[in-house]
Amino acid sequence: MALPKCSFSTRCDQCRGKGLEKCSVSACGGSGWVQCTQCNGRGRTETAKTITICGCSNGRVRCSTCKGGGKVHCSNCSGCGGFYHSVILKAEWHTRTSTWYCQNSFLPEKQISKAHRTLYWSNQQQPWSKNSSIDGFIQYLQQDERKENIQLKKSIVREYQEEHLKPTAGVKNRMSRLVCTIERLDFEEVHYTLDNEYTNKKHPELGTTFRFCKFPVNGKGQVIYENEYPLNCCGCFGNKCACYSCCCSIL
Question: What pTM was computed for the model?
């Protein structure tokens, strides 16, 4: 963006503002004429029997570089005679993003990132500054914390302060816009109990109770994640992750 009242012009020193300079062809020398190559400057061509008058002008022709004018456009200013200077303001914008997972299950973040999620809440505000109220930004976020056991508002405030305000404190920059999007993952958590010979080694406090989660993944349908399979249990798809199938003995 060019700044107003910061532009000025200067004269070209090479052509002294005229935009023209002497033809650079040595044979021309600024005269606009060069020696004819047909008659070698004699004005005629001779053979043993004939003498032919050349069509040039007394052994000279117009210089093809300057078209006979003896002058060409200045090579320094391209014929403009000077230069126009303007101050350009360059502003760089960086988008600072952060992703956080607030959940009430034992699903790892890697599995959540691959799952099919739906939009739960979204808001954006522009203009935005470091002094803007984050509490006012999330005032229309509705949720049932008693049922979902997730404190979204507190999590958003904490994430904004830790990942956006503190890292930019004391830095000469400013915020322009704030965008926040919350996505929801609908899953099913299943608890099942086995005989006393099976013990939950991953979470001993659960005794003989084991868990797995069933959730949707794009292109794969329903997928099961579990990390509590006993080694001597089914484990039909491995002891880390099993896909939903009717052949699995725990379903």
Answer: 0.56
